[in-house]
Specification:
Helix content is 26%, strand content 23%. The structure holds adenosine-5'-triphosphate and magnesium ion (MG). Adenosine-5'-triphosphate (ATP) binds next to α3 and β10. The site of adenosine-5'-triphosphate has 14 residues, from α3 and β10. This is Glutamine--tRNA ligase.
Length: 567
Amino acid sequence: MSTPTNDAVVASNFIRNIIDEDARTGKWQGRVETRFPPEPNGYLHVGHAKSIHVNFGLARDYGGVCHLRFDDTNPEKESTEYVDSIIDAVQWLGFSWEKDGNAHLYYASDYFEKLYGFACLLIERGHAYVDSQSADEMRAARGSLTEPGKPSPFRDRTPAENLDLFARMRAGEFADGEHVLRAKIDMASPNINMRDPVIYRIRHAHHHRTGDAWCVYPMYDFTHCVSDALENITHSLCTLEFEDHRPLYDWFLDRLAEAGQFARPLPQQIEFARLKLTYAITSKRKLIQLVQEGHVDAWDDPRLPTIIGLRRRGYTPSAIQLFCDRIGVSKADSWIDMSTLEQALRDDLDPVAPRAIAVLDPLKLIVENFPEDGREPCSAPVHPHHPERGQRDFVFTRELWIERDDFTETPPKGYFRLFPGNKVRLRYGFVIECIGADKDADGNVVAVRCRYFPDSKSGTEGANTYKVKGNIHWVSATDAVAAEVRLYDRLFAEPQPDAGGRDFLQALNPNAKRTVRAFVEPSAGALAAEARVQFERHGYFVADRRDSAPGRPVFNRAVSLKDSWGK
Ligand code: ATP
Ligand code: MG
């Protein structure tokens, strides 16, 4: 199932080809500086993880540095809670923005004064003007894909008049929306982004870092390229929807370079395809809706594709790295199947996760010919391929827990597990023969009865003279640890829950979380929070980081052993 090799990954990463070519021509004198620029208006998700791997991964591979820059120019939607969560997420994924003792951690809001100065410079040089049309008027004058826009009646204000108005906008003399500052480019451009885009708007809003110092805020297209240039970014990597904005990115930097503000070469914007993952949502706005409306429990709900959700689900940073390597980086938009993410987790955990037994749907098994207080030590390898990791010990007792569906009174054809008269092996224990079952007044089976064969213990001489077809899991009812187990599945029942603007809430999978009372063997009961384990037959699980404690474990199912979806 494991697909690509490293060669395939490198070949598919067209950005590496650009960097290699730049190295060949000496464009950047060997420098590679990238940046990851989240807006702190939500928690990061698996799509951001791709961007983080692209940006930080390239910087690491080329001996460069990747900046973490908060693109915090929309005061209403941003907060320090989000800033902190983003810092945590990037660190957890294993990346650092430090190089040679310098922390390359930046905030676009730290550039507000500089950005304001550059805007004034654009005004002075005739490249920007204050427009006093209403938002509706501006929209109406913008034209369409087939029609050019109409120049604003304010387009020919003099630089002096514009500078004065812009200073008064900053000073707070006007209400939100009364004026904007626009770049003076080309109202007839076939690229609508070039039709005098807005570069500043008035917002009387409190900013989480600059407080009330500002009431004019720069727009993304202006802020982003300038921040890149200020930080000497070489390759500014972003997603494809910014392709049409690239001429604007270059336009601002060219005008400021002409004005002597930036030296060439100027940072180069390069676009790559967004990650779209099936059975998931990767829009911050919709994730916020899922959390705020209570469709999930919190930002770190293990059903969410947020990075903290994935973490709590049991994903490891290396599984996410593996996933990003496998999907590669390209210019072509496509959907990645959720099973690719899940398989990366299995492939990451299989070689390392210790094994243990958990009985998720417990049914009592009474071994009638075993002494009441008898204790027979048994053991099993911690990991089947790593004998050096030793054995896990547990005991065989008269009362055990087995899985409810490992017993039936009326076996269908081909059923090799427990039914009256049949023999099975209790894995790592003894061969037993079923002799009947106890029932309650309603006829429900409440316990199964059996006899064991004392000379059949696994690993002892002659044990394999017993030929049985069934091999079932068990834990000792006296020694097993009671555990809460949360069985997670995909949050959405449809592969593209929000395709075509559909109401994605309609596609929620009502069975994405099921909680059961289980019993686990003592080695698993003692696991520390966030330890991962393979429960034989059931899948990979993690001790919940919030709710689990040794002796009082809570497990989340990270992923089943096999991909059973849609089959
Ligand atoms: P959303 O639309 O969910 O709010 P965004 O693009 O507005 O996402 P930002 O905080 O601006 O979120 O994103 C920071 C960086 O992560 C940007 O460079 C953006 O292109 C990138 N990014 C966001 N979503 C994805 C995705 N699904 N795949 C790859 N990169 C992404
Ligand atoms: Mg964005």
